[in-house]
């Protein structure tokens, strides 16, 4: 079993990489752009004080983050 950097390779790697890789990435970017364009995101007032995880490679909260999402007209 492969561990570490090759443990999760949804599109494969090397000369036999999935031809849908670029299409999948494009779809994810379009979906994110639509969500950011059509909705307003704010932190919920009931959020506890946020603590950052020291185990995550990027800045990430230890617990949940409650969001209030409104559709923009």
From TrEMBL:
One Pfam family here: p450
Source taxon at top rank: Eukaryota
PROSITE patterns: CYTOCHROME_P450
UniProt GO molecular function: heme binding; iron ion binding; monooxygenase activity; oxidoreductase activity, acting on paired donors, with incorporation or reduction of molecular oxygen
CC per GO annotation: endoplasmic reticulum membrane
InterPro entries referenced in this protein's UniProt entry, alphabetically: Cyt_P450, Cyt_P450_CS, Cyt_P450_sf, Insect_CytP450_Detox
UniProt entry tagged with the keyword tRNA processing: no
Keyword field: Endoplasmic reticulum, Heme, Iron, Membrane, Metal-binding, Microsome, Monooxygenase, Oxidoreductase
Membrane protein topology class: Peripheral membrane protein
Cofactor(s) the protein requires to work: heme
Family in the record: Belongs to the cytochrome P450 family.
PANTHER family assigned to the protein according to its UniProt record, in alphabetical order: CYP9F3-RELATED, CYTOCHROME P450
Protein name: Cytochrome P450
